[in-house]
Structures
1.
Amino acid sequence: MTATIEGTSWRLGRRDWCGAADQPVLSNGPEIWLSREGEPVAGFAFADAPREDAAATVAQLVAMGYAVELLSGDRDEVVETVGVALGIESRRAGCSPVEKVARLRELEAEGCHVLMVGDGLNDAPALAAAHVSISPSTAADISQVQADLVFQGDGLAPVLFALRTGRRATTLTRQNVGLAVLYNACAVPFAMAGFVTPLVAAVAMSSSSLLVTLNALRLQRRQSGESMP
């Protein structure tokens, strides 16, 4: 963040951006620096622990076949520690908002559909650029606005819930399209040949619509046994 107060330029952000690259490391955790006219004035250290179920969520995502990647603006040491703790092998440190969006574009060029999960102010551009994005309700307002989904709670389990729901909805949609194609492939030739009376056609069409509706309701029944955390 940059601000000019009474003609003096102030910056708040990463150490290198604030001219504090040669300053001593404050802690093993995240830090932020304040500078005036390019000269560091103060540094602030934070303790930013991962969410309690973060490691378990990452493990389940990998088991489901998803590739998990960590993009962070923090220092190499912090990202390395968090990545190892969560079991994330692919990780990048010191990423600016522009670099995060660029990485998403690289993945899309490779044919990937990217789900971005973020809560920071500098995550907002990547959340907007991703194929689908999710943000917690505790995130910065701009991140919530850019996200497609916003979840509540202290854990990351809702991310798994959303992905499983999407997978099931896709499967049921394909099944319904298949049922509709099969119905028309069987019924239209009989109708064109004059073997179907108006009454039979009405009953058949109603039955087809009812079958598709009941199949779609399977998603709701399955979700009733798996409520979102």
2.
Amino acid sequence: MKKIIFGFLIVTSGVFAQQAEVQFRQAVKLKNESRFEESLVIFQQLLKADSSKIEYVYNTSFLYSKLGNRQHEESARQNYFLKAEYLARKAIAIDPNNAEGHYTYALALGRINENASSKQKIANAKLIKGECETGLRLNPKHSGLYHILGRWHRTIAGFNFVEKGMINAFFGGVPEGGSYKDAIDCFSKAVLLEPGYMLHKFELAQTYYERGEGDDNILCKVWCKKVLEMVPVDSDDSLTLEKTRNLLAKVE
């Protein structure tokens, strides 16, 4: 009797594992198609069944970060971002040598910082940079990490006099790096690694505009037009197109 039960458990376990693998592949497919809401539902189910599997954890974190921007209420947005942060930290705890955990942690912190106070932005600055650099050591071809690092450099470069004073007061100086040139280098690498992702090109155009030196307005126009040649695949792309048109209008 014990053998039969034991054998039944093995078969049952195998069936569950196969079902989970099918669900995982479907969730990844939906994610890659930017069908984030549908993907999140499946990943939430997978995570509930097995919260120790790192692929479930960091993918769910990523989806919370992406979908947080689609929430209309600020409290809901921050709730999504905080869930993304928690799961990313958990992914790093499961395997600190997996670049995706560091990427999703930096992504979540970046999302939280978008509407944060200057003090919180500054407090998270070194942490975001450190996570990006760790992730890139583990995976030097991770376009998402270059994108976040590019935004980090641009943010630091754009700090005003008051914010720089706060950095000096709380941290003893501006974190190493933080120039428009570094930001442009990072976004350029992201474009090379993932040319089909519209937001990399927009952020490159935005960085040229913000620096505003020499031929930067011309380069901003060039990259804006490259963005406008692309076909949107989701609502995020549609928003990027709108932002690109607004940016182009400023330099024409």
